Amino acid sequence: MLQLGFLFSNCGHRLRRCFFSSLTDPSFGNPTEISDDLSLYANKQQTAISLKTLLDTGKGKHLHLFDKMYKSSDAKSDDQKVQIQVANFLHRELPVRLAHRAIKLQSNSVMTKSKYVNQVCNWYKRSFEELRNCPIPTSLENESKFYRLIEGIYDRHSGTLINMAKGAHEIRSELGQDIDGFSDYDEIQDHLNDFYMSRIGIRLLIGQYLALKGVPMESTYIGMVNSKTSPYEIAKQAIHDASYICSRTHGDAPDVTIHGRTDLTFPYVPSHISYILVELVKNSMRATVESHGVDLMPNIKIIIADGEKNEDVVIKVSDEGGGIPRSNMNRIWSYLFTTADPSVLNAILNNHDDVRDFDMQIPLAGLGYGLPIARNYARYFGGDLTIMSMEAYGTDSYIYLSRLNDRVLK
Ligand SMILES: Nc1ncnc2c1ncn2[C@@H]1O[C@H](COP(=O)(O)OP(=O)(O)OP(=O)(O)O)[C@@H](O)[C@H]1O
Ligand SMILES: [Mg+2]
C-alpha cells in the first residue's frame, strides 16, 4: 500500500542534474546504450499505489497535505492543487517505471533481434530522459509544462502494441510457424505478459492525470475511472466498432444481441472493458463469417450477469462460429499465434506505419495478440478472461471483472 508521504514527497527535491546525452545525440538510436541514470532508476523500487489512493487523491481527499508539502506553490483552487499533487507523484514515479521497462526489454536476447522492439525500447529511453530533464512541477507554470510533456509521452507510446506485434511477427518469421518447438517460447510469453501488464499500469497513471484536467469534480468520472460504468453502453459501442471493422473485410457483419443486466452500472475503467469487448466481438464475428458465410450468420450474444453480492461482474460473449480445436486452446493465449492469413499482417507491416493501437484501421484479425492482451486487461484489477469452445459449434468467452476495491496497482 502506498504511503501518502511517499506519494507527495517530491516537493523540495532540487532540480536533478542531467547525466546523459541530449536528445539530439546521434547515438540515441543505439538500443544497447544505457546511461548510468537509467541503470540507477531501473534498480529503484516502483511505488505500489492502491486504486483507492489514486481515486481519493483525484477527488481532493488528500488536499490537507498540500500546503505543508508544496509551500512555494501558487496553486489557488482545489483543482489546481490536485493537479500539482498528482503531477509531482508522476514526476517521481514514471522515470522508475520507464527505466524498468527499457532495461527489461533490452535484456531479452530474442526480442532485441527485432528492430520494432528496439524502437519501442528507444521510446522508453527517450521519455525517461525527457522526464528527468523536466523541472519539478510545483508551480502552475511548471505543472503546465509537465502536462504538455506527459501528453507528448502518452502520444509517443500510442503505437506500442502495433509495434510489438510487428516485432512478434519478425520473430515468428525467423522461427517459422512452429511456435511449439521453440525453446524460448515460455520465456518470451512471460516477458510479454509482464511488459503489457506494466504498460497498462503506466498508461493508467498517466491517463488518470491527463483525464483529471477539465473534468468537474462532481462528474461520475474520477480520471479514467467512471463510478457508473455501464457494460451495456460499452457493449453497444464495441458492437458498432467491431461491425465496422468486420464489414470492411467481409462486406457485412453478424448481428449481436445484448441480454441480462443491461441496467447495471459499477465503478470501473470503461476503456479497459471496451478493449476486451471489441477484441472478443471481432473474434466472434470473424469466426461466424468464416464458418457460415455472410448470408446465414447466426447472432452473437452478449450476456451481462451480476447479483448484489457477486464477487465479479461477468460478461459472456457467445458465438456459433465453429469453435476452436482443443489442440489450439493453449496457443490462443500466445502473442505469436494467429490463424489469420499472414498477408493481413504483411499489409500492416508494409502500408500502415502510422497505425496506432486501438485504431479503427486495425484488421479484423491477424496481429495475434487480441486475446492475450485482453486477458491482461481483465487480470489487471484481479479479474480474468477464459474461453470455452465446442469444436464444430461455437465459442463462449467469459470476462470476469473484479469490483474495484483497495487493490494495489502493478
Ligand atoms: N470466437 C472464436 N472462434 C473461433 N476461433 C477463435 C475465436 N476467438 C479466437 N479464436 C482463435 O484464436 C486465435 C487468436 O485470437 P487473437 O484474438 O488473440 O488473435 P487474432 O484474432 O488472430 O488477431 P488479432 O490480434 O488481430 O485479434 C485466432 O486467430 C483464432 O484462431
Ligand atoms: Mg482477435
Q: Any chance you could write out the topology, listing elements then pairs?
A:
Elements: H1 4-7, H2 36-42, E1 49-50, H3 51-58, H4 66-69, H5 78-107, H6 115-133, H7 140-156, H8 160-175, H9 185-212, E2 221-222, E3 225-229, H10 231-250, E4 256-260, E5 266-268, H11 270-292, E6 300-305, E7 312-319, H12 342-351, H13 370-380, E8 384-390, E9 394-402, E10 408-409
Parallel strand pairs: 4-6
Antiparallel strand pairs: 1-10, 2-3, 3-5, 6-7, 7-9, 8-9
Report on this model:
With 410 residues, the chain is α+β, with helices and mostly antiparallel strands. The chain has two domains: 13-219, Alpha-ketoacid/pyruvate dehydrogenase kinase, N-terminal domain (Butyryl-CoA Dehydrogenase, subunit A, domain 3), CATH 1.20.140.20; 225-402, Heat Shock Protein 90. It is 48% helix and 12% strand. The chain has helices at residues 4-7, 36-42, 51-58, 66-69, 78-107, 115-133, 140-156, 160-175, 185-212, 231-250, 270-292, 342-351, 370-380; strands at residues 49-50, 221-222, 225-229, 256-260, 266-268, 300-305, 312-319, 384-390, 394-402, 408-409. It has a five-stranded mixed beta sheet, with helices on one face. A three-stranded antiparallel beta sheet has the order 2-3-5, covered by helices on one side. Strands 1-10 form a two-stranded antiparallel sheet. Mean pLDDT is 85; it is low at 1-29. Magnesium ion binds at residues 279, 282-283, 365, 370.
